[in-house]
Amino acid sequence: MNKPLRRIGLAMMVMIVLLLANLTYVQVINADTYAKDPANTRTLLEEYSRQRGQIVSATGTILANSVETKDAQRYLRKYPDGAMYAPITGYYSSMYGTTGIEHAEDDVLNGSSAKLFVRRLSDLITGRTPQGGNVRLTIDPKTQQAAFQAMTAQHYTGAVVAIKPATGEILAMVSTPSFDPNPLASHDDNDQQTLMNQLKGDPKQVLVNRAVQEKLPPGSTFKLVVAAAALSSGTADANTPSLPADATITLPDTATTLSNFANQPCPESTNNQVSVATAIKYSCNTAFATLAGKVGKDNLTAQAAKFGIGQNDLTIPLPVVASTVGSLSDQASLYQSGIGQRDVALTPLQDAMVAATIANGGIRMQPQLVRDILAPDMSAISSFAPEEAGDPAVTKDIADQLRDMMIQSEAHTGGDGKVPGRTIASKTGTAEHGNSPKTTPPHAWYVAFAPAENPQIAVCVVVENGGNRGLAATGGSVAAGVGRATINAYLSAGG
């Protein structure tokens, strides 16, 4: 073979190798990137040609489903009670992707999950049209509706979380204000763009699921964690007066003062001393700030961790922002943290977990939002099993003592929704925040569980910026009624 022919042959071989390398890169190495590219209309049309699976409540109520259309995108996603469940379901959009459960369980809903392999193989053999799997949540519709209506009736900004203490199942998760995800699922790009522009421009950040994506100072609800640390470490017992009842104290090594609500001394004192139980009942700041100082940084941090505070990898399967007690850099910050201020910041889910753990005898359960993964025919593929999240946060005896303190706190708390004969254990919180805390409406908190003697539901409510009461807001006057409405709906339905 002469030299020119060898050169031509070598050039052809190089081009073939380069072509194969490029083909390998496109179809193997970078296939997933191209498949997920929003500009890839073939992938989009293929996905929309299959019926996406349903998202349903614990009782089977449809929260999201797909209906057939005559469009090029064959199926349209629908959300029957859009705003009520939007923070949970999220949205499914051809332009903006997925959020919420639509994102967390996308491979199940679109049918690509390994859990559905047998079904896909069966479809291939039988020639059936492929379908996505279904997701059944732990959400109880009546509880969700009660919580949502209680928040929206007053135009509150905030969140409600309800948990079944013995299992960790999330019975309700509300974030308000909310939004209707249906326009984001529209086949009309203009509808999607119009709504997304409105949502992104809303100063109330309606796309944020406040239950798991926002952490705020919890105020006096954090006193439950401080009390647990004190009792567990032996720093104090429940009923011996050993804490100051003073209306005001000065923080260590500072000229800064800290006062009780309305600048009043703590009631029921003995020689100007009160017990932990009395300080919980009347939510005495000076007593609990001092108690946090006695407990110390190490004991308080360790106790908080046992309740799950600080966990940075929690998913339910929605990702959850990590709560924190802050750095506790000095004794003054420790005192302020003892009343749920300074750098303490909890998500509503985390505060609900504190209440649920006490209700469950000190055992913290892994919270979960998904009960079952279901095949297209609604048969179960995998199901949720209750799981303890580490060692007990406190002993059963200490949990019972905290419960009894919370019962006394509830008896001292006003607000709507109290039902004769129903014993609730609760703790309120009124949290200062902002650059000018004394002139900024506080966040109102309420954590509780019921029935106190046999807990079936634990709740956390936070109403941001004083709700409808402004600077006069307290946890009892604003958040407690929402929490009791949520509890009553679940228990009245036989929960």
What's this, in brief?
This protein has 495 residues and is of the alpha+beta class.
Structure, explained:
With 495 residues, the chain is an alpha+beta fold. It has helices at residues 3-29, 31-36, 41-48, 82-89, 100-104, 106-109, 117-126, 141-153, 189-201, 210-213, 223-233, 276-281, 285-295, 297-306, 331-337, 348-359, 396-411, 475-492; strands spanning 55-56, 62-68, 75-78, 92-93, 97-98, 134-137, 158-163, 170-176, 243-244, 248-250, 257-259, 273-274, 370-374, 380-383, 425-431, 443-450, 457-463. The chain has a domain at 216-369 and 390-492: Beta-lactamase (3-Layer(aba) Sandwich). The strands form 5 sheets. Strands 3-2-1-6-13-14 form a 6-stranded mixed sheet. A 5-stranded antiparallel sheet has the order 8-7-17-16-15. A two-stranded antiparallel sheet has the order 4-5.
Topology of this structure?
Layout: H1 3-29, H2 31-36, H3 41-48, E1 55-56, E2 62-68, E3 75-78, H4 82-89, E4 92-93, E5 97-98, H5 100-104, H6 106-109, H7 117-126, E6 134-137, H8 141-153, E7 158-163, E8 170-176, H9 189-201, H10 210-213, H11 223-233, E9 243-244, E10 248-250, E11 257-259, E12 273-274, H12 276-281, H13 285-295, H14 297-306, H15 331-337, H16 348-359, E13 370-374, E14 380-383, H17 396-411, E15 425-431, E16 443-450, E17 457-463, H18 475-492
Parallel strand pairs: 1-6
Antiparallel strand pairs: 1-2, 2-3, 4-5, 6-13, 7-8, 7-17, 9-12, 10-11, 13-14, 15-16, 16-17
